[in-house]
Each structure stands twice: as structure tokens, then as C-alpha cells.
Batch of 2 targets.
Target 1
Amino acid sequence: MKILLHTCCAPCSVYCIQRLREMNIEMDVYWYNPNIHPYMEYKARRDTLKEYTKMINVNAIFEEEYGLREFCKNVVNDLENRCINYCYRVRLEKTAKYAKEHGYDAFSTTLLISPYQNHEGLKKVGEEMAQKYNIPFFYEDFRPGFREGQAKAREIGLYMQKYCGCVFSEEIRYYCHNQAKRDYPMDLKAIKEEKPQVKRIENKEDYIDLLLEADPSKTSIMKYLQDSDVYGLKLNDEIISLAVILYIDKNTLELKNLVTKKEYRKKGYAKRLLKHLCGNYKQKYDKMLVGTTENNIPFYVKQGFDKYEKTIKNYFIDMANEEIRDGDLICTDMIYYSKDLKKK
Ligand code: SF4
């Protein structure tokens, strides 16, 4: 299989190319990013990609087009939705068309590695272009490799850009850099301050794979899932964290599962979801329990689960046929703590 890989910049391509090679997928790299501003930035990114592809022996095709006016004309009336309504669209359309005309088996994009892009939106546009040009969109969630790729790019000395690309993303950088958030134009505020929202999840079973990352037993998940409520933290149309709440009695709840997608971890999203739920549940309930491994006790104590309740000896050994690990720890006992929801 040979794909045409739309490439936004060399650093983002590092992990994507490595991953595709691991999957034995051949590729040509395709540069088409007419919106990058200013021209010197455009040139720096393009030339870095030229050098990098030469260095790793990958064929690269460069569409030389610097389209500031065309880009501005098309996005100026709806800056907030410019990425999905215009930028992704023109780049992926050109890629799909080129791929079809030149006999590739599929097309894809390195934009799929960025945790800062609207991932679901990108996927949707890719699929739309696939239909329009009758060529498959090769979808892969490259985001788990984002940090690794960026670290490698830095290590080999690639030019690392400071903003997404267009003049408006550069403007946001200016405001952030100067900490003049209150001076944001209104539409920029909306872009910058996209807030995750808590949603009740109806189609609980669609999220089994993510829940399994926090609780390795599918049987155990299926048991508590049917009697629990599941809440998700939604960011840019994507559920990034989940919490499963089981109702024990009229005063007590139990947090059965709390998990965040890999690429969003260590950013406080699970904490945020839990805080929101505790705030809501305190109207009706007194106490929330959580059963956890030793490794996670400090996290839960920090979130107010500071009362030790009980230990179920060898819980993890009895539950599974194989060794369950949490980092370096081989899980044995389940330790219960609780949080007083009414406590200020
Ligand atoms: S922020 Fe990035 S993806 Fe969005 S329009 Fe600008 S360059 Fe395109």
C-alpha cells in the first residue's frame, strides 16, 4: 500500500513517518500549506521538511503556493470555525485530488498527530474528501506519539515552529505571550478559551476500550456499567475523560472508573471531571467511595478522598487470570477511600 501523506511540517512528520514505516506502509510526503504566515515562516517550515525528507530518504512533493489573500478572504467572516470550514478542507482536498490523479492507494495527513487540532473534525473532512475523490482516507490516531515525535525533532535539530501556521494563530500566540487575555477580540476569546464540558453518556458500551485502560477486567466493567451513570468530559467534539458512578444507597455513591485518553493525560482533565461531579452530587449524596491501587492513593487523597474505609485483600489476583500491573506495581489489594461530599 502506498499513501500520499499531507505534511504540515517536519516535526509533526517525524512520528507519523516512523509509525507508517512500522506498519509497512509506503508513502510520499506532500507539502501543501498555503496559509502559513508570514512568508519567511512558510519558507522555514518548507525548507526544514525538504532537508528532513532528504535525510530520511522519503520522496517529497512540494506544492509551492503562498496564499495569504485567498486564505483571509475565505475565513475572515467566521474566524472561530476557520480550521474546520476552510483550512483542513483546502489542504485535504488538494491532497485527495493529487493522490487520486497519481495512482496512490490512499491519502492521509500529519495533522492527525496534533492534540491542538480538532481531531474529529479532521477525520470528518478527510472522509468527505475520500468520498468526493473516490480514494480512501487513511485514518490513524497518531496523537499518542506526539510528544515522542516532538522530542525526536528537537534532538535532531529541526526547526520548531511556535504557532499553528496562519496569521490568526500567530495573533493568538501574541496575546498569550503578552498575557493580555482580557484584550482579546471577542472571537479570539472563543477560540482560546474552548472549555471542556461535562456530558452524560448514553451509549456507555461504545466506550469500553477506554474504560479498560483504568479497569482491565471487561467482566467487572460490564457488571457495574449497567447500574451506573457515565459522564464524559467533551473537548472539541471529542470525549476525552470518563467517570463511572455507581449508586450504592440513598447517601452513598462509588466512583468505579475514572480515565482519560492517553494523549490528554497529565493536564488535569480527570480532576476537573471529578470535581464537577462531586459538586453536583453533593446536593443529594453524602459520600463517594473509590476503590484503588496503592499507586493512585495520593491522587485521590488530593481530591478529598481522605478517609480510609477498607482493604479487599488480593482483589486483583482473585479477579483476573493474569498479572495486573499499574506502572511498576503488581496489583494485589483493592484499597477503599471515601470523600465527604458535604465537607467544604
Ligand atoms: S489555526 Fe492552524 S489549522 Fe486553524 S486555520 Fe490557522 S493554520 Fe489552519
Target 2
Amino acid sequence: MWQVIGQTKLIDSLRRSLADGRLAHAYLFVGPQHVGKMTLAITLAQALNCLAEDKPCGECPPCRRIASGKYSDVQVIGRADKPVGSRQSAVRGAGDYRLLTIDYRLSKEISIDQIREMQHNVSLKPYEGDQRLIIIDGAEHMSEEAANSLLKTLEEPPPSTTFILLAADEGSLLPTIVSRCQRLKLSPQPVGPLTQALMERWGTPSERADLLARLCHGCIGWAIRAIHNEEALAKRSEHLDSLISLSRGDVSERFAVAAQLATQFGKDRASVVERLELWLTWWQDLLLVKNGCGEFITNIDRREALQEAATQYSLSAIGGMLQSIRETTQQLEQNANPRLALEVLMLNIPLEREAIYA
Ligand SMILES: [Zn+2]
């Protein structure tokens, strides 16, 4: 069974190629983060090596070993987890003691050494079956040297080897690499099938499945991670509360938040961009509610608050705020002064009640 949700056309085409023994030498799976690129690659690896009639069965020894990353003819290359130092954190518990925590961070790029090691491996015969599969996760993060070296391998592909490159941002790949691959695009999936999958496959209660399916923007990998990560959802709730209170807050409160976010941006850009994305979902929801399309909102667990807030703003005030959030995100990406950009955004948050007359 193909574990991927949706993507039926693409799976049908892979299935046909497999049945005819006409897999391409190299594929490029493109699509946003968490959309299911790795799951599709692993499922294809299983289908290629499965011992059952209906491939992939997910149960036979090769299928199981591929799923657990122990099958030697399926190799995954990606940016490595590197320890980036350790810190002492005080932990309060039954007694006071100190805990040593090691921080891991993804290395910046896929290195030439990783590609060379792979090239050595593919020069040998497959160990277990007659096919080898090389998955390059985050292919857009290959160093220039690594990309050029991989290109040579793709130009003269070794026998019995299939390459699968996974990329969220194919624009950062060498065009010569892209042209050597068969490109398959994975699209975000609608809320309905995702909710159903979360309930049936992961046993998530219906209300929660519906919320996660909306929050993940069509990329189920995010929702699956969130099932096991209460903290992420609690943080989202906290950030929404702070957004609502800012709509009622005075200038000094708003500037304090801008300063705090600007400092945070210096340390962790992604978390601030994520916060702005969350704000965007809130104002988009307000627009939907205002237009009588409440069933399509993202923040379904805040339906009542959204309905109440929607009465406080005019359509033009909501539209203006959406525009302002998008502009701020763009400015931050273009390295504008973060404090200044965020202060302007804060001043643009329309005040409740007053805004209706704007
Ligand atoms: Zn199998």
C-alpha cells in the first residue's frame, strides 16, 4: 500500500513505470516541507524491493527494513545533525540538579564528502537486492562542489541505481541537475482527506484531527509531528492570545512586542517568520468569517473569538492588515531593519471597534 495521502496521478505514473520496469535513473520530488516527499521516496524504495505480489506490502522483511532505515541498498543523504556545543540548564525537580544538554543543529549544507562516499558505494554491486536507491533529502542544500560532483554521476548514471532528489526550493538547484531528473510535483492536500487520514491511521480524535488538518496547510507531516508535540500547539495558542490582546493594546505595548520580536529575529529568524504566518492565518480567517465563509477557516478552535472579532473590523481594515503582514515578511526576507519593519507592522494593527468606522 502506498502510504502517501492523495497525489494519485503521480503514484499511478510511478506504479506504471515500476510495472514496466522503466523507472527513470533520477527523479526530482518537489513540494513544500512536510508534504510527504520522503514518505513517497521510501514507499517507492519498498515497492522496488518488496517480496509480495501487491507491492509494497509494508510487511515483508525488505519493506520493514527499508522503513526502519536498515536496508543497505537504500541510502539517504541529507544535511547531517551536528552537535553545536552543550549548555548547562538548571532543572527544578525533587532536588536541584544540573542537566547537560547538547544542542543539535542541521549542518548548513550537504558536503562533497557525502557525495563522494555515495559515489564509491554506487560503484559497487548492490548488497541485498539487484537495485539500489539513493535519496538526497534537501537537495537544494548541496554545496556547489557537491552539486557539480553529483551532476557528473547523473550524466553517466551507474547501472541498477535510481536517484531521488527531494527539494522544497527547486530554484536553488543547478538547472543542469533538474534537467537530468524526471520532475514530480507533490501538492498540499485538502483538509477533508487529511482529517480522515489523521483519524484512521493515527487514531486522532475527530475535532483535533480537523484542527491539525487545517493548521498544517495541506502538509500532513506537520500535523503528524504536532500529534506528539503538545508544546507546539500550546505555543500557537499563546501567540494567538498575544495577537488578540495587541489589537486592544496601546502603542507602548505594541512597541515592546516589536522590540522583543526584533531581538528574537536576530537569533532565530524562522520563529519570527512563523509567528507572522500565524498572524496571517488569523486575519485571513477574519476575512473568511466576514464574507460568510466560516467553514474554511484555519483556526477552527477559535471560531467564536473570530466571529466576535469579525464584527469589530471593516473589510478594508482586515485587508489592510493582511497586506501589512505580507509586506513586513517580505521586508524581513530582504534584510530590512527588523525593529523598524516590526514597529510599522504594530502600528498598522487596527484597533477593535474604531476600525469599523475606518
Ligand atoms: Zn513488502
